[in-house]
């Protein structure tokens, strides 16, 4: 799945569609932090690292701003959005169950 920086279905809805269409179980390796205008980066689930991106100019590639551990005390501040941080933590708990 590509174009996480564009508004779209939730990652859960995309997983459901893929599983229904192809009859396979999905295990996402990367997980988005936000979407559309609120996209901040991706979680690399296996390594428990969050890759944060600086928003680029329209049509330009975003640049990686930081790579931090999911457990890093600075993560919420680096994301810059408490709601997105809380959603990420909730998603991790749900996915890692």
Task: Write structural notes for this entry.
There is one protein chain. This protein is of the alpha+beta class. The chain has helices at 11-22, 75-79, 82-96, and strands at residues 30-33, 41-44, 49-54, 63-69. β1 (30-33) and β2 form a beta hairpin. The longest helix is centred in the last third of the chain and has 15 residues, at 82-96. The chain starts with 10 loop residues before the first helix and ends with a helix. The model has no long low-confidence stretch (mean pLDDT 90).
Mind sketching the topology for me?
Elements: H1 11-22, E1 30-33, E2 41-44, E3 49-54, E4 63-69, H2 75-79, H3 82-96
Brief digest:
The chain is α+β, with helices and mostly antiparallel strands and 97 residues long.
Contiguous uncertain segments of 5+ residues: none
Residues in helices, as a percent range: 25-40%
Structure classification: alpha+beta
Annotation, overall tally of beta strands: 4
Radius of gyration: 14 Å
Structure annotation, total helices: 3
Largest sheet: 4 strands, antiparallel
Strand order of the largest sheet: 1-2-3-4
Element order, helices and strands? HEEEEHH
Share of residues in strands? 15-25%
Coarse morphology:
globular
Mean pLDDT: 90
| C-alpha end-to-end distance | 22 Å
């Amino acid at each position: 799945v590509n174009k996480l920086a564009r508004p779209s279905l939730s990652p859960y809805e995309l997983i459901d569609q893929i599983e229904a269409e192809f009859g396979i179980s999905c295990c996402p390796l990367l997980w988005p932090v936000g979407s559309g205008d609120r996209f901040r980066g991706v979680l690399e689930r296996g390594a428990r690292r969050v890759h944060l991106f600086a928003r680029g100019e329209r049509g330009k590639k975003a640049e990686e701003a930081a790579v931090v551990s999911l457990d890093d005390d600075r993560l919420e501040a680096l994301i810059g959005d408490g709601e997105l941080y809380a959603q990420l933590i909730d998603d991790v708990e749900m996915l890692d169950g």
